[in-house]
Amino acid sequence: MSTKNFETIAIRTQTERSQHKEHSAPIYMTSSYKFDDAEEMRALFANEKDGNVYSRYSNPNTSELIEKMALLEGAESGWATATGMAAVFTTFAAFLKSGDHVVSSRSVFGSTHQLLSNIFPKWGITYSYADLDKPQDWEALIGPNTRMLFVETPSNPGIDVIDLEFLGNLAKKHGVLLVVDNCFATPYLQQPLKLGAHLSIHSATKYIDGQGRTLGGIILGSQELIAEIEGFARHSGPAMSPFNAWILSKSLETLAVRMDRHCDNALKVATYLEGHAKIKLVKYPFLPSHPQYEIAKKQMRQGGGIVTIVVNGGVEGARKFMDGLNMFSISANLADTRSIATHPATSTHSKLTEAQRLEVGIEQGSVRLSIGLEHIDDIIADIEQALA
Ligand SMILES: *Cc1c(COP(=O)(O)O)cnc(C)c1O
């Protein structure tokens, strides 16, 4: 385990440089690799020697990204995938078989919900949903065929939080895997593997890139579990491209300073909006009014960059507010340098019924704000004039 600090690891972990002595990492755009002789080829294929064989398995750029992410999150090993959803799918598919059952937090990313509710049932894999704000309900849902607990904390867009140490102990007691989608927090704010999780998943598309440029996914865990992931991924082929790995490894160099600013800005926005006459509710993990404030403080370094609000006046109030924003982008994405407003009820969560939306804290007036890196005075001024 590295004794260096987060920022230093993110900047100084790098693959060996070539004879050109380039300071910044080059991109290795190659599908395959050559061997010195037939014996080296045999040894690499027999896993008797480390090295690159084919870029569906490994590439210097993906290896650098994985090494950094593993060091930053305290993982032994990792695997990179083309998208965050490929990371989620690969994790489910590598560990679940027909007859298995998953207990998942109800408020999962839309496509994860689709995997659980529409795709895995075809293969005989079932699931139950539990709520982040009702940790006491989780244990009763674990049955003899339960193989995995899956959780997103903080949740999207409800910004609910659950105690990961509590879930880690529950997973241990029942001999099941705890898998955490750590996308909203990043390794800078929350390190699930240190709290008892077996695997941590990231959509690198979000804060790891943080600039709205590229898609990517990463799975982190023990050598033993990542070997199982590898066994599935080498043959099913969800590999990340070297170009995207290069971008994401570069992005990690600035993750800490970006997250500090995202979090500072988001806390200022949340504080400004709380108590505003036109706002019914503000959800942000590091506001003392948040129902799981103490848990958030215990397991997160800061509160993250997402603030979810409920605007008075239902869907009309939310739309009027969003259409009044001049600087914020209206987009379904999040975790960009640019501030973004989303109306979950009519976009990301429009496929749910009203009752299902209310169960995960989405009202008609809910607006998810992804607070960017513009100057805080300009961010608040835009919100202020839109509410006026
Ligand atoms: C975006 C997102 C994903 C999916 O990631 P993609 O890179 O878009 O495939 C998964 N989980 C969470 C929490 C996300 O926000």
TrEMBL record:
It is an enzyme of class 2 (transferase). InterPro entries: Cys/Met-Metab_PyrdxlP-dep_enz, O-succ-hSer_sulfhydrylase, PyrdxlP-dep_Trfase, PyrdxlP-dep_Trfase_major, PyrdxlP-dep_Trfase_small. Gene3D superfamilies: Aspartate Aminotransferase, domain 1, Type I PLP-dependent aspartate aminotransferase-like (Major domain). One of its GO terms (molecular function) is carbon-sulfur lyase activity. It comes from the Bacteria. The modification N6-(pyridoxal phosphate)lysine is found at residue 206. Pfam families: Cys_Met_Meta_PP. Its cofactor is pyridoxal 5'-phosphate. Pathway: Amino-acid biosynthesis; L-methionine biosynthesis via de novo pathway; L-homocysteine from O-succinyl-L-homoserine: step 1/1. Belongs to the trans-sulfuration enzymes family. MetZ subfamily. Homotetramer. PANTHER family: CYSTATHIONINE GAMMA-LYASE (PTHR11808:SF80), TRANS-SULFURATION ENZYME FAMILY MEMBER (PTHR11808). This is O-succinylhomoserine sulfhydrylase. It comes from Pedobacter yulinensis. The gene is metZ.
